[in-house]
Amino acid sequence: MSPAATNVRRPGELTFERGGLSFRATLDGPPDGPLVILLHGFPGSRRTWHGVTRRLTDAGVSTATLEQRGYGAAARPAQVADYRLPELAADVVALADHLGGGSCHLVGHDWGGIVAWYLAAMSPSRWSSLTVLSTPHPRAYAAAAVGSDQAMRSAYAVAFQLPVIPETLLTIAGGRLLQASLRSSGLNGVTARQYADNLSTPAAMRAALNWYRASFRHPSDLRRVGDVAVPTTYVWSTRDTALGRAAAERTAGHVSATYRFVVLDGVTHWIPETRPARTAELIIAAMGADRSSARR
Hints:
Elements: H1 3-8, E1 12-18, E2 21-28, E3 35-39, H2 50-58, E4 62-66, H3 85-98, E5 104-109, H4 111-122, E6 127-133, H5 138-147, H6 150-153, H7 155-159, H8 165-184, H9 189-198, H10 202-217, H11 220-223, E7 232-239, H12 245-250, E8 259-268, H13 271-274, H14 276-295
Parallel strand pairs: 3-4, 3-5, 5-6, 6-7, 7-8
Antiparallel strand pairs: 1-2, 2-4
Helix pairs in contact: 2-14, 3-4, 8-9, 8-10
């Protein structure tokens, strides 16, 4: 690694610019360690990865946790089209370039997982390994939506397409409805309250919901995600109320590289928050599998 890349990866908060927006990321771990970029989902934050990054850095891994588009006031464009999948992915590439531009490991949960699938399919040479938590490959999800209970599980995403009403309901009374929904799906109360606080204004919530709205208005973005030629670990949990087994099991058919499917029995959708040690263990194993594959 070059001295310049090592210097920019020193622990702390990093700010970088793209397309007139200002993004933030948290850097942890040894600057010369292998780099992992972690992407949170809805309605998460960089806090999603707090317990995971602590364990990764203890193992000598350098981590970059991105505050995704719309989740920070300085990176919150107004138009729904600004939240299309290619834009979300380009933010991650800009972060990787800022950190030295070499190949690194990619991890995503929930919507962060969708961005990670897109990146791995579109630019496989940039990523040494891929670890996705909860979210199946987009084409596996689309197939499951036709012949399983997946469409019913995803009904909330249809409701998010309504204008104004969702962001109003999810932010009134300190985000009480959002907090209750998160707790009922398995997230602890403290984290649920922090997530609600982060999206406590209608403008902030609207930006987060615009990820869903953009995907509905531009379905071709998801259809473009082809098979992945990056060594991949996909982790699904049996108590995930939003994402069912049918799509999870179909995901293997969309990875042409080394593939590992891990099922966490009795675990909810909130894998990184509730199982940080296991999550870190799986990421490290994926990184090791990539190195073993390279030696072969």
